[in-house]
Amino acid sequence: MKLSFRLISAVPLLFMLLVATGMGPVTAKARMCETSSQLFNGPCLSTTNCANICQNEGFPDGDCQGFRLRCICNRPC
């Protein structure tokens, strides 16, 4: 009887331990402001090229978005 009581009480403890390890501190992501590139011409086919153009415009990043394949520059708000 003692062994089964120990086993029954150990199972919820192990479950709580497994659940607690998956929970860490929650960090808030900064909102990203997006604006259309002023210097990029034509359809945006290369995200790397778009990011380079956006960096020349003073933005940290850029990527191709939308149906019209436009270069969109991103920065934290």
From TrEMBL:
Keyword Hydrolase belongs to the record: no
Keyword Disulfide bond among UniProt keywords: yes
Cross-referenced InterPro entries: Defensin_plant, Knottins, Scorpion_toxin-like_sf
Domain Knottins-like: residue ranges: 32-77
Signal peptide: 1-28
Superkingdom classification of source: Eukaryota
Gene Ontology biological-process annotations: defense response to fungus; killing of cells of another organism
Pfam families, A to Z: Gamma-thionin
GO cellular component: mitochondrion; plant-type cell wall
Keywords for this protein: Antimicrobial, Disulfide bond, Fungicide, Plant defense, Signal
Family, as annotated: Belongs to the DEFL family.
Name of the protein in its database record: Defensin-like protein 5
The organism of origin for this protein: Raphanus sativus (Radish)
The organism's taxonomic lineage, starting at the top: Eukaryota, Viridiplantae, Streptophyta, Embryophyta, Tracheophyta
